[in-house]
Amino acid sequence: MQDQVSQLRVYPGLLRPLMTVPHPVSILVLYDRKNSAIEDLARAAAVGVELSGAARATLKRTTEASQADLLAADGLLLGCPNWSGITGSLKSWLDEQGDLWEHGSLAGKPAAAFTAGSGQHSGLEITLLQLLHWMLACGMVVVGLPWGERMRNSGSYYGATAVGEVTNEDLAQARELGSRLAAVAAKLT
C-alpha cells in the first residue's frame, strides 16, 4: 500500500481551484451621524467585524454612501441615533434607495442595528425596531444579541445601544454585534 501511495501524482493545475483564496466577506457599517455616540458605536462595530477574522468592514456615513455600497456589501450594520425613532435624514436615505425590497436585491443578506440616545426610556428599542423593520421588508436576515450579563446594563436583544455617554460595556456590545454579523455573513456567503 505504501508503494501505491508514493506513486500517486499531483497535478498542480487540478488543485489550483481548491487553493484560491475566497472573496473576502464585506460588511457595510452605515450610520446617520447626528451625535458622537452613534459614531463611537459604528467604529466599535467595525472593529468587531475586523476582529472576527471572517470579514472586512467598510465604515460610511449616510452622507457618503450610495446604493452601490449597499448592494456590494455581503452584510449590513445600520445605525441611527434615537430621535423618538429613526432620524428624518436616515428615513429619506433609505427611501431614496428605491424599491430594493420589491426587487429582492438585499434578500438573504444578514443585517444588524445599533442606536444611541440620551435616556434609557427614550425609545431606543423603537429605533432599533424601525431599523429592523426596514431590513425585514428587504428580506434580510436579522442578527441580534443573545442574553448575557453585560445586557443588564447595556444593549438589547435587537442590537447594540448606548445611553448618554458611551461606556466600555456599550462598545463591547457593538463589537460583539459586529463579530456576530461577520460570522453569519461568512456562513451565508
Structural description of this entry:
This protein is α/β, with parallel strands linked by helices and 189 residues long. It has a single domain (22-188), classed as Flavodoxin domain (Rossmann fold), CATH 3.40.50. It contains eight helices and six strands. The protein has helices at residues 2-6, 12-19, 36-52, 67-72, 88-96, 100-103, 124-137, 168-188; strands at 25-31, 55-61, 75-81, 110-117, 141-142, 159-163. Strands 1, 2, 3, 4, 5 and 6 form a six-stranded parallel β-sheet that branches. Helix 3 (36-52) packs across helix 8 (168-188). It is globular. Mean pLDDT is 87; it is low at 4-21.
Topology:
Blueprint: H1 2-6, H2 12-19, E1 25-31, H3 36-52, E2 55-61, H4 67-72, E3 75-81, H5 88-96, H6 100-103, E4 110-117, H7 124-137, E5 141-142, E6 159-163, H8 168-188
Parallel strand pairs: 1-2, 1-3, 3-4, 4-5, 4-6
Short description:
By secondary structure, this protein is of the alpha/beta class.
Which terms summarize this structure?
189 residues; alpha/beta; Rossmann fold; six-stranded parallel β-sheet; 8 helices; 19% strand
